[in-house]
Amino acid sequence: MTFSEKCLQAIEDGNMEEAQKEFAWALRKDDDEILFNLAEQLYALGLMPQARRAYLKLLERYPDEDELRTALAEIAIDNGHNDEALAYLTQIAPDSPAYVQALLVAADLYQTEGQFEVTEAKLKQAYQAAPEEPAVLFAMGEFYYLVGQFDKAVPFYFALIQTGAVEFAKVDIAARLGMAYAQSGHYEQALGYLKQVAPAYQTSDVRFQTGLTQLELGEFKDAIETLTDLIKDDDQYASAYPALARAYEQTQQYEAGLKAVQEGLGVDQYNENLFALAARMASHVGDFKLMQKYLQQAHELDPDNLTITLEYSNLLIKLGEHQVNVKLLAPLVKADEVDPQLDWNLAVSYQALEKYDLAERFYQAAMPSYNENVDFLKNLISFYQETGQRDLMIDEMEHYVRLNPADTEMQERLDQEMF
Length: 419
Hints:
Distance between the termini: 112 Å
Low-confidence stretches: none
Largest sheet: 2 strands, antiparallel
């Protein structure tokens, strides 16, 4: 055995003291090709200091070998020594066989610093120099995937598959392509690739995206099967539960949907949107008290979420909980929240509580936004009737029947008032 082989064997055996001894002999005695292979394997094992020593030894012997500089730059980046990495990379000229690899390493460096425009520029240089190089295609795809520009990532993954590469850097390219298609809204293409992902790469993320894509395509039965299987294997994958609940909702399996979202709350109990979804499922099964409980919890988790607040307010009105509704909404009005639905809901509750001055104030505030809304006009007509404002009531009834002439009951009421 060579000293390098003995070193690697000692590492495998967990005998690091012996490994260090054999490594020292390898630096002195093994030939350069064997030492280069040792450096690569040490890097792959995460033994950066030893890999760096081996590459530096080789660079002493081969100062014109730029591949060694790119390797040393990669190690420097891994260690957070970006200035050192740049020093190696700037020594590599554009006519060097290692220049494309140097551009890829430089792109990686700038990406770690969050300089995405420079990263993209380096990658484009590499692509211009080697447009068919798999490593370049993969790097371009991965960059656009990382920054969420999925439409731009797709052509590079597709080109990579056309080179015959189904896997690169331990990444399944069909999975990446499927995920990128899905994220860019091309669901049919996405599902085709997601179904091609090898079993070893069927991660929870891939399986979730498959289920979500089936849901988007209206393949609800398949989505339920995919997401149910995912939860069986990974019951902590919180995002699967609301997706499964929505699939059940689409097939009108409301009890099953409610159960799914309740199980999800056991995994993620601080997600206000999950509570809101649970409330919706509770409404489907007619359990409005449970719906109220979930909306209250959703509101408490995110009191600034106006959509949830208004949904909670609408339910409180439906349940006749007008004191609770006023307590919920009045502070928002004082804080200058401008959504006119707040004014409308407060007006309804103040009317129910017989606080007519306040009710009229909020009806008037809501009127500019809802003057063409027949449901609002019905509430307003009811208010004017209850407060004895007959002329205003008739005006709004006339307005109402112009907007909704099919409501014969309101027309009859108007006729009675007029004659």
